[in-house]
Design brief:
Layout lengths: L1 E2 L5 H10 L4 H12 L14 H10 E2 L4 E7 L5 E6 L5 E9 L2 E6 L2 E2 L17 E2 L2 H16 L5 E6 L9 H12 L11 E5 L3 H10 L4 E5 L5 H7 L8 H15 L3 E7 L7 H11 L4 E7 L13 H13 L4 E3 L13 H9 L1
Parallel strand pairs: 1-2, 6-9, 9-10, 10-11, 11-12, 12-13, 13-14
Antiparallel strand pairs: 3-4, 4-5, 5-6, 7-8
Helix pairs in contact: 1-2, 4-5, 6-8, 9-10
């Protein structure tokens, strides 16, 4: 059986028509799923008995089982979910002044092998379906509904490389963005890649309004290759050329994610090299405090070094933000809670 969340609005219409049901019934179904957020097909009272029976016999709604939930002092909430096949994934809810933001996972495990990242502690087992990604938003939305709140922003930045699961991630974005779905604005959806260059070109040609973020984390090829193996396949020159193509096609501002690692990429020289690399780009840098992972041994930069790094960028016309640490009193690093759970089994 398949999750009903796997269908975009258009694909759901096509499925209904191909199975002898009226097109307008698919619209009713979509409304029940995303606006009324029902848990069963039986609750779709205006769909007709035959249609409900067909859906019950061929599809299911709920794809996630909550394994554990951690809530930090700042209310950052990390969920560990079990999928139908027993694999586990993480989802994170963050509270900001501009609204509730959710970081979703796109793969079970990750093959990118970034040296500092907990996601890579467990290698990729499979891609998530679009429905399994949608289900993460649905679950959190149902919780927030009790507080008369909802998810306002989405970042595809959890476990896995989104552009290594391109089609499913794009279908996910279509569904949560659809005005009859969760109606989350395209500019409130961010997809983060560590630099899968061919997919950046493909994404550029889509001409969608979703935000693109690049996990950069080092200003030179030598440094980046040491901590991010993908740089050996797609050098900074290849990456920056792809991003120029994207910017020329879309006229959209880029975000560069840059985790500050003590003694690795946080020196004054690194700030100089980063400003040279990004000179002339329509972008800003999101400087991120590192959530330490025991297995890797990296340390987060101290406040003085972080501020000095930030100040240099700003004084040299590279727009930057120094992100506040979220959830540092829980297993906040991406993939950390899942890895701990797997080791305990």
């Amino acid at each position: 059986m398949q999750s009903i969340y796997d269908f975009t609005y258009e694909k759901l219409q096509e499925m209904f028509i191909n199975n002898g049901m009226k097109k307008y019934r698919s619209e009713q179904c979509f409304n029940w799923i995303y606006r009324k957020m029902v848990d069963s097909f039986e609750q779709m009272s205006d769909l007709g008995k035959e249609n409900i029976e067909f859906l019950k016999n061929n599809f299911y709604i709920d794809t996630l089982t909550l394994v554990s939930k951690q809530v930090a002092k700042d209310k950052t909430t990390k969920y560990l979910f079990k999928l139908k096949d027993g694999y586990t994934i993480e989802t994170v809810l963050m509270h900001f002044s501009f609204g509730k933001s959710v970081c979703v996972t796109s793969q079970v495990g990750c093959n990118m092998g970034c040296k500092f990242c907990a996601s890579g502690l467990l290698k990729k087992q499979r891609n998530l379906t679009s429905g399994e990604i949608v289900a993460q938003i649905a679950y959190v939305n149902k919780e927030l509904q009790k507080e008369n709140e909802r998810v306002r922003n989405i970042v595809v930045m959890g476990i896995g490389e989104p552009f290594d699961n391109y089609e499913n991630v794009m279908d996910f974005c279509k569904t949560v963005n659809h005005d009859k779905g969760f109606a989350i604005g395209a500019r409130h959806i961010t997809i983060s890649t560590c630099g899968v260059v061919p997919k950046i070109y493909q994404f550029a040609d889509e001409k969608v309004q979703y935000n693109l973020a690049i996990s950069l984390h080092a200003p030179t090829d030598k440094q980046r290759s040491e901590i991010m193996p993908i740089n050996k396949s797609y050098s900074l020159e290849k990456l920056m050329n792809a991003l120029k193509y994207y910017s020329d096609k879309n006229n959209r501002r880029l975000t560069f994610e840059y985790i500050l690692l003590k003694g690795v990429n946080d020196t004054y020289e690194d700030a100089i090299n980063l400003s040279k690399l990004l000179k002339g780009t329509n972008s800003y840098v999101n400087l991120i405090p590192y959530n330490e992972v025991d297995e890797h041994g990296f340390k987060t930069s101290d406040d003085k070094s972080s501020l000095k790094f930030y100040d240099y960028l700003m004084k040299n016309n590279v727009k930057a933000t120094l992100r506040t640490k979220h959830g540092d009193d829980i297993d906040a690093a991406c993939g950390q809670l899942r890895a701990k759970h797997e080791r305990a089994q």
